[in-house]
Amino acid sequence: MPAVSRGDAMRGLAVFIADIRNCKSKEAESKRINKELANIRSKFKGDKTLDGYSKKKYVCKLLFIFLLGHDIDFGHMEANIKNDISSPKPIHVNLALHCIANIGSLEMAEAFGSEVPKLLVSAQASESVKQSAALCLLRLFRTMPESTTYAEWASRVIHLLNDQHMGVVTAASSLIHALAQHSPADYKGCVSLAVSRLSRIVTSIYTDLQDYTYYFVPAPWLSVKLLRLLQCYPVPEEPAVRGRLVECLETILNKCQEPPKSKKVQHSNSKNAVLFEAINLIIHIDSEPNLLVRACNQLGQFLQHRETNLRYLALESMCLLAGSEFSADAVKKHRETVINALKTERDVSVRQRAVDLLYAMCDKSNAEEIVAEMLTYLKKADYAIREEMVLKVAILSEKYASDYTWYVDTILQLIRVAGDYVSEEVWHRVIQIVINRDDVQGYAAKTVFENLQAPACHENMVKVGGYILGEFGNLIAGDSRSSPLIQFNLLHSKFHLCSAATRALLLSTYIKFINLFPEIKGTIQNVLQNNNQLRNADVELQQRSLEYSQLSSITSQDVLATVLEEMPPFPERESSILAKLKKKKPATVQALEKDDEKHKVAPASTENHIESKADVPAAPVPAPANSIDLLGLGAAEVAPPSSNSLLVDVFGGSSVTEEVDVNLQKFLFKNSGVLYENDLIQIGVKCEFKEHYGRIGLFFGNKTPSQLVNFSASVQADDVNGEVVVTTQKEAPAQIDGGAQVQHFINLECVALFSDPPALTLTYNHNGTPHSISLKLPLLVNKFFSPVEMTAADFFSRWKQLGQPAQECQKIFQAKFPIETEATKLKLAGFGLACLLNIDPNPDNLVGTGILKTKSAQVGCLLRLEPNKQAKMYRLTIRSSNTQLSPLLCELLENQF
């Protein structure tokens, strides 16, 4: 072809830039850019004869579009990166590596995942190229961790820790740390090399590492990276390596005691960064008493430091030290300092860490003092941490209660001080404890009766009082100051100030009173038969009043006594309060979990009892598990009990084989989260979808200190009748070490519309006991939706075309959440639809459009969501050419707004 002049070569780009500058509006600019992108995409895909000049021209246009702030998802491979990465000039290779790393797409990972490691371990590559290659590989690994572990290069990558160039070592440390977290067995050889390199750094003098010394601290960034890398593995078994590591850690602690070599803040920051990471490694090793105590003492000096960040980090690290048998006593010596910080600290996050540390250092010797201090602080605590503090006080008071009267007093004081933040788990728990302990029932009835006499009484106190007096009011009825009629009048004086749920509980208390105190039967029947109750707008209250009235009028006293006899003791299980705190702040319960002492409650009675619906205080466990109905209560979830649990709960019942009904609705608008969890295992998911393909990453975490062996995970797609094709990408290993996490990846292809997701079956052995779990994957049909933009004319034209009755599904339902337009838009977008603006004549109505993409067909979907703010209701209408899709989507979306 004829030669192209320099001016001609840039003419196309100059014309395009001029067109963009001449655009009068943002819409016109976007239209011109989209037109150009479509043209370039067609050239790159369809024109096999495209020459180098044309590629260069189009890449320059893409660069200009990118500089304008638009996302570019193609054209990278046409930029001649392969030529640059194989260039003999280091500057060209570095530019190519930086480009690959900055883009970091799947396309880049697949194209260069096998090329970049060669540069990293090449003897001919320069130090700058090795640095860039290490960081580039790190980005590619984070993009595709399941297929780019570089196991075949492991030994050669590890030896980069011995490289003479510190920049190469620093970059390689970041790469090896990420790879070691993913494939620890492949990179375990890095431990001895990391210890050796760390030793050379911490024992060096200023002149040894002059170019890598930052304000008199030798190579602080590399030191921190090496210390973090060593935390991926247990303490080295080789005596020489272990001794050298201990010597390094002692040297770091010693240097922190030396006078500072500079008054600059950079010096103290870098020195403290190394110190705190060294302390984290000491805590991780947890087998060197001398180091643990020294670390605790060093942290204690920071508790009153003028720097807020240092106080925060010191408290956080001491929380972990409190869980070690070697340093627990050393931590408790700082109790008064921590309590003082709780009272005087200005920063709320530091105050919260102080609460965490008090919780972690609590034991039988100091429980009453710490609980008292926490209750005192709770009166003025920040609202953001009150609920968590309530949970901690409730756990500590139960765990360390030598006298359960103290426990009852503490919980009732908790309700008085922070009633709004006392969750159901807490007040349910005190009732469970009282029912299971005969020695505290009379005291509990007397104490709650006295608390109910306060003029301002929190509703949670009414709930506790109603339940306990209904069961044990007879124990204090002999005192004229708490006679049956006085008890009833006291409770009924609170009745009209309470919510419907509490009033329902009080009605159950009243019928119990008829059994306990026949002498006030007439008074109570007058209340039950009052029109305010029998014609109450609340169906539950109306039904209870009618049934209890008939029960008290028709049945004999013997039958009434049988039906309304005292609740039996509850069976044992892990405390739901502790389980809730584990979900909120798992690290803060670490110290408690290392204590083997357990509190037991009385064994369950075998007698049959009947209790009114919603009155049994059954706090649900945190992990999704089989849902059963206990004594007429709604769904109360039950999980296998843990042999290591500290606190026991009142509902028993577990099975080695679990058919788990996971609430898949929580994955309707998101693609990641915890799918299932019990005391042994946690199953997390992370999903990706594009067109009619999907990939689900399953993450299995062993929550116990012992191995899960004979582990297998299989996905059964038989129940979807070939509508979803499932293939395994990466199998899970046959065993999971204690505290470890493994991965399992599966690929999906949506062939046709489906309603039931595939099933996941897990089998494993724990301490000789076989376990099996079967649950559904979070695969819903909306995951294969692609949003589609439309104009108002196009939307209503298509809406009319889909006017057949079979093509439409409509649902009218009560709003479950406050009607907020922006929040609803986010949900529709998370569902996979394009939320169109200025389409519907009514601005409050929302319009969504999308296409369901399957292998066999593509099905359009139109949605209109019309809120009625006055009635707090929604009307949802969905139209689709597939008559099965509309009702399926309506079922998924109903009551999600």
List the helices and strands and how they pair.
Blueprint (H helix, E strand, L loop, with lengths): L5 H4 L1 H11 L4 H21 L5 H16 L13 H5 L4 H14 L2 H7 L3 H6 L5 H17 L10 H5 L7 H17 L7 H13 L10 E2 L2 E2 L1 H11 L8 H19 L7 H21 L3 H14 L5 H14 L6 H5 L2 H10 L3 H14 L5 H12 L4 H17 L4 H15 L5 H13 L1 H15 L6 H14 L11 H12 L4 H17 L4 H8 L2 H4 L4 H16 L2 H7 L9 E2 L1 H9 L5 H4 L33 E3 L5 E3 L10 E2 L7 E3 L12 E6 L3 E10 L2 E10 L5 E9 L7 E7 L10 E10 L8 E8 L2 E8 L8 E3 L4 H10 L6 E7 L6 H11 L2 E3 L9 E8 L4 E11 L4 E8 L4 H9 L4
Parallel strand pairs: 7-15
Antiparallel strand pairs: 1-2, 3-6, 4-5, 8-9, 9-10, 10-13, 11-14, 12-13, 14-15, 16-19, 17-21, 18-19, 19-20, 20-21
Helix pairs in contact: 2-3, 2-4, 3-4, 6-9, 9-11, 11-13, 12-13, 12-14, 13-15, 14-15, 14-16, 15-17, 16-17, 17-20, 19-20, 21-22, 22-23, 22-33, 23-24, 23-25, 24-26, 25-26, 26-28, 27-28, 28-31
Largest sheet: 6 strands, antiparallel
Helix content: 40-55%
Number of strands: 21
Oligomer: single chain
**Fourth-level CATH superfamily of the domain at 664-779:** Gamma-adaptin ear (GAE) domain
CATH architecture of the domain at 664-779: Sandwich
Head-to-tail CA distance between termini: 63 Å
- In terms of structural class, how would the helical and strand content be classed? alpha+beta
CATH class category of the domain at 664-779: Mainly Beta
Number of helices: 37
Report the principal-axis shape: globular
Low-pLDDT ranges: 1-7, 587-655
Give the strand content.
5-15%
CATH fold node name of the domain at 664-779: Immunoglobulin-like
Please tell me how large the radius of gyration is: 33 Å
Q: Mean pLDDT, as a whole number?
A: 82
Keywords: Coated pit, Endocytosis, Membrane, Protein transport, Transport
Main location: membrane
Function: Adaptins are components of the adaptor complexes which link clathrin to receptors in coated vesicles. Clathrin-associated protein complexes are believed to interact with the cytoplasmic tails of membrane proteins, leading to their selection and concentration.
InterPro entries: Adaptor_Complx_Large_Subunit, AP2_complex_asu, ARM-like, ARM-type_fold, Clathrin/coatomer_adapt-like_N, Clathrin_a-adaptin_app_sub_C, Clathrin_a/b/g-adaptin_app_Ig, Clathrin_app_Ig-like_sf
